[in-house]
Amino acid sequence: MVELRNVKKRYKDRTVLDIPALLIRDGESVALAGANGSGKTTLLRILARVLVADSGSLTAPHDVLYLPQRPYAFRGTVLDNVLIGIKNRRNQALELLEQLDLSTLAAKSAQSLSGGELQKLALCRVLIRPCALLLLDEPTAALDTKGTQLVCDAVARYKAQTNCTVVFSTHTPQLAAKAAERLILLRDGQIESDGSIRDASQAPGTEWPKHISGKPAE
Ligand SMILES: Nc1ncnc2c1ncn2[C@@H]1O[C@H](COP(=O)(O)OP(=O)(O)OP(=O)(O)O)[C@@H](O)[C@H]1O
Ligand SMILES: [Mg+2]
Known about the structure:
Layout (H helix, E strand, L loop, with lengths): L1 E10 L2 E11 L4 E5 L6 H8 L7 E5 L4 E4 L10 H5 L7 H10 L15 H13 L5 E5 L7 H18 L2 E5 L3 H7 L2 E6 L2 E7 L1 H5 L16
Parallel strand pairs: 3-7, 3-8, 5-6, 6-7
Antiparallel strand pairs: 1-2, 1-4, 8-9
Bound molecules: adenosine-5'-triphosphate and magnesium ion (MG).
Magnesium ion binds next to helix 1.
């Protein structure tokens, strides 16, 4: 379970996150939407415990994996990057690269990847480990339609294997509809709307679900 109570984050005199209460049940898939600067990354970083709120309480598993919004690569090959800190899992790493359509690049320097390839590699580096809470910050921001589908499939497979809770941010309604059962819209650091994504899943289109009153900026 993830629970936030009266969580606030300020930078100087500006409050960028103010969440009186938020509860996410074990095994839920939650999409975070909202305009640029609305607080999605701040919330994910607090859940990941890489950022500490100024006040309030957080209950969340410590067994967390967090994919930052800006993907990065370490020195070495693509395969080396997936296996960082991991022993004896070469086959699993190759399988993940295959799932994300990166296997032909396995022996290439990770520094030479395109933006989309790098984003998929960063996800492989996360998905090779099990966790209880998976936090993904705009995991498909740099990806084309095919890449987005591959990421959706890989995350779904991972979730089925681990039974983890997933929280991800996105500006793409179709991704939210495909990969989440619940959609939370942030506006100016506050939860503007929080509800089932069922409407959107039944008629996936280019619009955010009707119960979401504001339309996030693209
Ligand atoms: N270290 C910081 N110092 C000052 N302000 C910050 C800092 N980090 C974030 N902010 C501000 O907090 C607000 C929320 O930022 P956040 O990164 O959470 O937004 P976001 O919803 O993830 O946006 P995006 O869609 O662009 O990724 C923004 O106005 C941002 O400028
Ligand atoms: Mg962000």
